[in-house]
């Protein structure tokens, strides 16, 4: 593995040809793509083949695995590992010490390495994952969903859903601005930002200019 350690002597951006900041204690492997104005903080490691968008915040002691794709404006708090097979779209929030997995039935004696063994996990735009939550691999977290602290996700989470517990269960619905909504006769209006939503079965859609926005 060819590691490049950033050897800057202060907290200025490292090397004039790079538009992102990486703390001198962090490692960025060869072959990574990192967008402008992204910050990578203490003791973190971005592994080869990874793509990180612009304006991201990568906290302390974060590991981003090989070939991981991360969108722009993503915030990953301290002590999070984003393993190969996980994809984060724009504006995703990962709380401190939350956990992703990428192998469903791991065994030390019979290692399962390589992309063919990894179950894909997709976290869609704007979703928030609370501290110490666990996301079991092979599932999709819907856009603007909210995963409560300590929750264990074992199946797909719908757009805008608030899920809590172990295993995760729907406990309500969240506006894209982060406020919980109350539905009356299958419609809701956020009291904070005034966005309107409509519920159809177990799906929630935002209404803009009288038109249902479908993912």
Reported CATH architecture: 3 Solenoid
Helix coverage percent: under 10%
- How many separate domains? 1
- What is the CATH T-level topology? UDP N-Acetylglucosamine Acyltransferase, domain 1
- DSSP summary, beta strand count: 27
CATH homologous superfamily label: Hexapeptide repeat proteins
Q: Which CATH C-level class is it? A: Mainly Beta
Instruction: Average the pLDDT over all residues and give the rounded result.
Output: 91
Structural class: mainly beta
- The sequence of SSEs as H and E is EEEEEEEEEEEEEEEEEEEEEEEEEEE
Q: CA-to-CA gap between the ends?
A: 40 Å
Major sheet strand order: 1-4-7-10-13-16-19-21-22-23
The largest sheet, given as strand count, sense and whether it forms a barrel, is: 10 strands, mixed
- Tally of alpha and pi helices: 0
Low-confidence stretches: 1-5, 7-16
Bin the strand percentage.
Answer: 25-35%
The Rg value, from CA coordinates, equals 19 Å
Q: Indicate the overall shape.
A: globular
What's a quick, concise take on this entry?
With 215 residues, the protein is an all-beta fold.
Fold and architecture overview:
The strands form 5 sheets. This protein has a 10-stranded mixed sheet with strand order 1-4-7-10-13-16-19-21-22-23, with no helix packed on it. The relative contact order is 0.08. It contains no helices and 27 strands. The N terminus is likely disordered. Helix content is about 0%, strand content about 35%. It has about 220 residues and is mainly β. The termini are far apart. It has a single domain, classed as Hexapeptide repeat proteins (UDP N-Acetylglucosamine Acyltransferase, domain 1, 3 Solenoid), CATH 2.160.10.10.
